[in-house]
Amino acid sequence: MNTARDLIIYYFSGTGNSKQVALWWAEATLKKGIAARVVDITTVTNPNSLEINSDSLMLIVSPTHGFNYPPVTIRFIRRLPRGKNLVVLANTRAGLKIGRFITPGLSGITFMLSAILLLSKGYKLGGLISFDMPSNWLSIHPALSAESANYIFHSMQQKVQRYADKLFDGQSVFPALRDLIQDLLISPVAIGYYLAGRFFLAKSFYASNACTSCGLCEKNCPLHAIKKSRKRPYWTFRCESCMKCMNSCPQEAIQTTHGLWVLLFGLTFLIMGLLQPILADYYRTFAGKLALFTLILLALVAILYPIQYVLIKNRRINAAITYMSLTFYKFWGRYRCK
Ligand SMILES: Cc1cc2nc3c(=O)[nH]c(=O)nc-3n(C[C@H](O)[C@H](O)[C@H](O)COP(=O)(O)O)c2cc1C
């Protein structure tokens, strides 16, 4: 039997999946007669000053973004005080339903990096568990149907109960280790996303003509990444693409600029071609080419996003960009965690 006197659950959640998993854990823990507390990490201003009882069991739940915990979660773990507590790491991933099967998402370096950070602070690892919740990554795929999402929900709630039972019976709860090989294989992409990809994605959002300037996206952004200028939302580089804004906008006015992605990639390749005679040394290796491509792409994003922001105030230009956004079309839908 695990001897923890209570469970403290720290979570980050964009669209509600990780929050839901945190709440299921609290419920399962309370059923065992053990106290449970659920804390949203975005409400903790200084993790370093947290006073955590040495015999409390800790659970951290967060989505996976680009095969890693998002920066907000890593920052939280990095800033935790030193401690000797047992910590269980959990992530929620992109689950899809095919027939009766729930296909697993990919964790990449999610657990490796966080485990190293925690162990270096003196914590002990009590478990590593992934929960394949309905995918919320609507910049790249349409929303799951309500029926598929409900099926996945039901299955993951049972998984929480199963692992809570095991954990409090003192059994090993490291099922995520089974994914180690595929996680190691995907780790270069995880590093690439963390260093560069997320900045590109953060600048793919804009508000279409349907925006009523209600301010909800700005008010509810967990990372305070949206600013409003002349009544329209503007996404800063603080954005971690958690999808809360897009999935909860009452007008479904927040879109991803898919059409402009194509133009942006085209422009980046064009500049790469023009620079080749000058920077021939960088073109000799794949790593050199990739680094250059990424730098040019990010520089273009930084320059063109403010220009796009001004241009989309023109209703015709806005409409043209919107017709090139897959997220605008009805079939794409939105993901709302129930
Ligand atoms: C920007 C972004 C990146 C994502 N990357 C991954 C990933 O690498 N692997 C994965 O399995 N799921 C990935 N997902 C899916 C989410 O991790 C998953 O839907 C999660 O349950 C969302 O949790 P939340 O509702 O608490 O924010 C990604 C989602 C987003 C928005």
Automatic annotation (TrEMBL):
UniProt GO molecular function: FMN binding; iron-sulfur cluster binding; metal ion binding
Segments forming domain Flavodoxin-like: 7-168
Keywords: Iron, Iron-sulfur, Membrane, Metal-binding, Pyruvate, Transmembrane, Transmembrane helix
InterPro entries: 4Fe4S_Fe-S-bd, 4Fe4S_Fe_S_CS, EFR1-like, Flavodoxin/NO_synth, Flavoprotein-like_sf
Ranges that cross the membrane: 101-119, 260-280, 286-307
Domain 4Fe-4S ferredoxin-type: 202-231, 238-259
Pfam families in the record: Fer4_9 (PF13187)
Name by which UniProt lists this protein: Pyruvate/2-oxoacid:ferredoxin oxidoreductase delta subunit
Natural source organism: Bacteroides reticulotermitis
